[in-house]
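Recap from last week: sequence in, structure out.
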Amino acid sequence: MNTVALSLGSNLGDRSSNIINTVKTLEKKFKTRVKKSSVYETPPLYYDGPEFFYNCCISFKTGMSAEEIFDITSSIEKDVRKKAIKRNEPREVDIDIVFIGDMIIADDKLTVPHPGIQDRLFVLKPLSEILPNFVHPAMQLTVTEMLYECLDRSKIKKIKGFWGKKS
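Predicted structure tokens:
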């Protein structure tokens, strides 16, 4: 069984419902309850626009292969999207595979660990809540260490009570 970490984002439509429904669908598809971080409102990094993201991370354990995990997350994204999008455009939901245990994969279809996470506060901050001591298999740094060293100074805001309890 591998620990899987996913980063979820939404900046189009009803961001709250998009995140909540995506988590429910992931739990159903992976047949497990997931550990959820707080949700943060974050500015877009790769384009200028008013559409702030809701971002969070989830983790769970699975015996599925990397390809099976990728196929499930990709199919959920496609099911939610109302239209085809280009890279870094606003979207109803974005699911990135951050880690799959200590796997290192780089092929045409999938790169794990997700490249650039060490530079993304919107991933590291929520991930540090649920997997603070998880070690990046290539960098050999914990999530907490990467957060401490992260140069991204984006202003992110925790959405209090997002999951229905004080967070």
